[in-house]
Design a protein that fits this description.
It is a single chain. This protein has 5 helices and no strands. It is an all-alpha fold and 85 residues long. The radius of gyration is 12 Å and the shape is globular. The chain starts with 13 loop residues before the first helix and ends in a 9-residue tail after the last helix.
Length: 85
């Protein structure tokens, strides 16, 4: 199976994940710890890869990010349409 990329990235929300993580004053490891409370087991290296568009983000992962940051999915995907240009 071939993996699709958009502008050489594997996801369109990585920048927002990083933005909201920093806004929440969380390290990548602290974000992992909070995600674990929702049953999502990620490593800090996964967060790094997501933030830099080098890892696919599953729909349930995007939802968990939104829950941790206490924002809507719209906010997580905000600006994603720019990636399609």
């Amino acid at each position: 199976m071939r993996i699709k990329r958009i502008n050489s990235k594997l996801n369109v929300i990585g920048k927002n994940v990083k933005k909201y993580r920093i806004k929440a004053n969380l390290t990548q490891q602290q974000l992992c710890d909070k995600l674990d409370l929702y049953g999502l087991n990620l490593y800090h290296s996964d967060i790094y890869l997501i933030e830099y568009g080098k890892r696919i983000v599953r729909d349930y992962e995007a939802l968990a990010f939104a829950k941790v940051f206490d924002i809507s999915l719209d906010k997580i995907y905000e600006g994603a349409e720019k990636e399609l240009n």
